[in-house]
Amino acid sequence: MSYFDKLYGKLFPNKDSDKVPDVHEVLKRSPQTQQQYGHWKDSPERSKLIEEVAKAYYYKKTNINSEIEVHLFNTVYANGFAISYHQNIGSKPFQHLSDYFRDKVLEMGYRLVNADRRILDRESYVETIEKYYLKPPLNAEDFAQKSVQNNQLFGNIAIEHVLIDKQSSYLKVLASIYSDRQFQEAHSYDDFVTALFHQ
Predict the structure, then answer these.
(1) pLDDT tens across 40-55, in order?
(2) Is the separation of the CB atoms in 105 and 173 below 8 Å?
């Protein structure tokens, strides 16, 4: 197995290979962390980081590498990207980035259906996965009427901040679309990324 295959497997693992977590809890930020996030969100530091991440993402799409390493995921039913942690970003801003992306997706009309933290003992290291899972605002009445197709927006959105031995490793954003006839065709993934990086 090549280095890329191993890295790809870590960033976008097969769900069947996941073991039962040693700890599985609701992801809730402390008041102190929420306050730090609020200051960061209103700071020039946040604007600069979003610009750098967006630039790295678009560079990667044209096969140009940048200081911030980005990995792309592209299939028929799911699209996404992962950002490898870089020491120049700092661990707290990297964590804040996952909360910022959550907020940006909420602004797109999504609802947060799950926020959890899983801690897994991987024998040689401890992996922590902080995950936000967001879904489009589906209408129960529309589901009852088979003739009405639901607007899935950009599909379901998963945002994961992964830490290895309590140190940030990468941040992943994944949009998975519905292929069911009950849903309208998903909006463009490129439009999703544009909205995510828009300041």
Answers:
(1) 999 999 999 999 999 9
(2) no
The two tokens of residue 80 are 């996404």
The model's pTM is 0.86
Segment holding 195, helix H or strand E: helix 189-197
Specify whether the CB–CB gap between 162 and 127 falls below 8 A: yes
Please indicate whether residue 11 or residue 138 has the higher confidence score (pLDDT): 138
Distance CA 143, CA 130 (A): 31
**CB distance 132 to 156 below 8 Å:** no
Q: DSSP secondary structure string, 64-97?
A: ---SS-EEEEE-SSEEEEEEE--TTT-HHHHHHH
Cα dihedral 164/167/171/176 (nearest 10): 30
